[in-house]
Amino acid sequence: MPQPDASKARKFYDMACSSGAHADCLPLARLWLKGKGGEKDAATAVKHLKAGCAGGDGDACGLLGNLLYEGKGVDRDVPGAREYSRRACEAGNTAQGCGLYAVMLYRGEGGDKDLEKANQLLDAACEKGYRVACRLIGVMYYTGMGRDAHYGKARRFTTMACDGYDPDACANLAIMWYNGEGGDEDKGKARLLYEQSCDGGIPDSCVQLGRMWHLGEGGPRDAAIARQFYVRACTKNVAEGCTAAGGAFFDAKDNPLDRDKAGVMYSKGCELGDHDGCLFLGLMHYRGDGAAKDAKKALALFGKACDGGLIDGCVSAGWVEFGTPNDPAARGLFDKACSEAKDPDGGLACFNLGTMLRYVDKKPGKAADAFAKACKVGYVAGCVQQAALLYDKQPVRAANLAEERLDLVVKDCK
After folding, report:
1. What DSSP line would sit under 240-264, residue for residue?
2. How far is residue 243's CA from residue 262's CA, in Å, rounded to a whole number?
3. Running DSSP on this structure, what letter comes out for residue 95?
4. Which of 200, 203, 305, 395 has a 20 to 30 Å separation from 325 between CA atoms?
């Protein structure tokens, strides 16, 4: 029996495709894509797929649409991907053609969004094994966008996609098992699914998996293993993973050099846009803990965190400026953080602002307003200072305030 010869197959498929035998253009294109029997070249494969598609081969249209959508070896062309997927679907390529076309209709990629038409195509594509369609149906049931919300159905379709080796679907399924949505809660199962997704190339799942190892959720607790998953996410430029890795290295006690690694990770997290990374790196420089003590560098990092909307960054920057010729700058930072305060952490900024207004600016009225805001969001010391300012002029109101907030004071003392 003759042995397979890819080079000869390529030659004969080429002759057939060029002569109008459009069904032979698809296998020819696959040889070019895989580099079997000769050179590997996606652009040449696209040329042959276009010939096959033009001749009515729905499978050629489907593969072409997928290549153009993903941009593997060729320039990404989303409108082109939509058009060729539509042709594939109309030619009977239910899985890949209709599946990708439905996804693009749902998302409005390469053209107008059309949820009704997407819905008509998704179920058939999922049944034919197009896992992305199954995942999207799960998302629609989970979010209630495009279909009536139903966690049970969301879990069922997401499971189908995950079982078809879709790592994004496995990440979505992990959330459902973690929260007990659409079925039982099982954090051990969630951990396994996050691991499957992480191994499948979804770095955000590596972060979640690291957290579960760090906290001991769904299995044993192991900070060293958690750190490995955080680092894996960081190497894929997931900012949150870098910051989490920084925290894991900073807290490690087995190697003094881990503090240096913490700084590197925090720095990368900050550069990638995670403002917690900027804050923690700033604290390292401010305290000289694992990094050179440098108040100027710390202030710049705190400011970056503050500009990114992190209240703790504004508070920290304010403390660096407080008590220096830059008191007005500190006041501005505390004021910004206080205006956005919604919890005791933000309440600290209001308290600091009130302290400056009372003792530096000698403006007890404005100070009382700042302390009142601190008190309102649960920062107990603000309640105490507000009551103290009220006592001289409004002792009854001060007493009532103290009584109203006594529960907070007691809770804080505990």
Report:
1. HHHHHHHHHHHH--S-TTHHHHHHH
2. 8
3. I
4. 305
